[in-house]
Each structure stands twice: as C-alpha cells, then as structure tokens.
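Researcher: I'm comparing several assemblies side by side, and this is the next one on my list. It has 369 residues spread over two chains. Same procedure as the others: predict the full complex and return the structure.
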Amino acid sequence: MGAIREALTQSVFFGVVISLLCYQIGVLVRKKTKLAIANPLLLSVIIIIAVLLLLGIDYDSYYNGAKYIQYFLTPATVSLAVPLYRQLAYIRKYPAAVFGGIASGVLTAMGSIFLMGLAFGLTHEQYVSLLPKSITTAIGIGISEKMGGMVNVTIIAISITGILGNIVAEGVCKVFHIQESVAKGLAIGTAAHALGTTKAMELGEVEGAMSSLSIVVAGILTVITVSVFAGFL
Amino acid sequence: MKYVRQLSVIFSISLIAELMEYLIPLPVAASVYGLVLMLAGLITKIIPLEQVEGAADFLVEIMPVLFIPPTVSIMTSFEVLSQLLVPVTVISVVSTVLVMAVTGRVAQGIMKKTGNKGVERETAEKVTKEQKKSRK
C-alpha cells in the first residue's frame, strides 16, 4: 500500500484524474437510478473520500493536484453571467414577480436561519457559515470565507439544502398551491440553487429558466444583504 | 483561436475581479464582482455574446466538477461536523421548505396582482429560440 500511495501522490494528475473519474461514476449512477439523492457531486465526493482513506492518502496530497480544478471556479462563476443574460427576457417580462419573489425568499432564508441559530445557541462563526446555505456554492463559499465562517460547514449545508430542495420541490408547490410555472421556478431556484434547478428543468422549460435565473439573482441579493444579518448573532 | 479569445475575455474579467476584491473593502468575493462585470458587459454590448459564449458554456457545464476539491475537504473536519450535524440538518430542512413556500407564494401573488399570467410560454419559446440561434 505504501508504494502505491507513494507513486500516486508523486503526480499532480492524481487528484485531477480521481476527481474526473469519480464524477463520471456519479453521473452514471444518477442516470441508472434516476434518484435525486444520487447526486453526481455527492456520490463522487463520497467515493473519493473512501478511496483516499483506504489508500491512506491525506487531503493535502489529493489537493496538491485537485487545486488545479478548483482554480477554474472563479472564471466559471463569472461565466454564469452568460445563461443569466440569455434569460433577461423573463426579468423584463415579470420584473416585480422576479425581484419580489426572490427578495422575499432571500430574506426568509436568512431570517429563519437567524431565529433557528438563536434557538440552537450557535456561535457567530457557525451562524455565518450557515447564512449562505440556500445559494449556489460558487457564491456561498466566498460569503462564508469573507464573513469568517467555516467553509466546510457551508458546503455541507448547501449540499443538504440542494438535495432536499430537489426532493421536496413538487410536494411543497402542491401543498402551498404554487401553480404558476414562473412562481414554481423562482421558488425552487431561490430555495435550492443548482441542485433544485435540475428538478425545475424536469418540471418544464419555464420552471427551469426561472430557477436558473433565481440562482444568480438570489446569490447577488444575498451578497448585498448578508452583512446586515451577519451582525445579528 | 476562437476559444483562446473567449478564454482571454473570461480570465481577464476574473483578474479584474480579484483586483477589485483586493482594493474594495467590502465582504464580497471576487467571483461576484466578476459575474456582475460580465453581465454589465453583455447588457451594454461592450462584450458581444459570441466573444464569450462557447468557453463560458463549457465552464458552466463543468461547474459541479469544480466543487469536488473543496467538498472533499470535509474529510479533514469530520469531528467539527459531527457536532453540528443536528442543528445544520434541522436548519437546512426548515429553511429550505420555508424559502420555497414564501418565494413561490409571493411571486404568484405579485403575478396575479399585475395580471400577467399565461403569457409565460411565449417568453419561454422566445428565449429558447434565441438560445438555439446563438448556439449555432
């Protein structure tokens, strides 16, 4: 085992290759099972951690190569402007519903996290780690870091939120009588970012477009308002 | 050369965004400055869509893969996380359902008030058509 570990961690490509391979396994499992919980990102992370623990490779050796993947995160987030630009027609058509809906969702997210954080007696560090949990990981990680939160906790909370939102989306819309396609898409995207959006896309074209629009708008609105909420606890 | 040009636009904006993060004393991550800059550029047509879209679509498509390294880092803090598992799970579940319900109800209420129901299919068709056109 020692020799394998030694050889594998010599190359920076190890971290890259294992990430890419495991993600493809995740996509394959998702396709075969069609389960929301079988999220490719979640599956690949579980497999990678299992492999690393099994081979006795520590995170730093993995990250030594994998950091070159993460390097693309900022350019990729910048690129989110392109799909958003393509959906501007929706904002022009329903400006009040889009901004009103998303803004109320963003405030509900942070308000409810504040109240529950208070109830659970969370520290400031734990609280700010959870504040960006409804928005896309790309923006959420940045907020957590900037606010002095624990990025690990933020990532976990964002993943739980996304997977859960994906699973409950249809049920919540039914229970709360949300029937308009536009409203459904906004609700799913604001509550459960990209993972929810995959569900919204299954529901329909309008739902999918509104949901992906919400990812970016909710992310930006959260960036603007998070400092206020961060001061509460 | 097309992709070289597109990537150079995207990475230049990323560079400017990181400079802004360094210079502006606000708790805003570079990627958000970059996203806003890019969007402003596209809207004002200073950056034509065809000068970024191929490479941008590729980067957006591979985005989940880019989150793998930071997510794997949870293996370094199982202890901290196991202590927080109950609050994190409860907060995530409750707030996700709440946010979804509130956003949907508010958006639907506003739409009913302003009376622009039912026209959404047209907008969807228009957007899809534009997307198809721009992908060609």
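Model: For your comparison table: Chain A has a mean pLDDT of 92.
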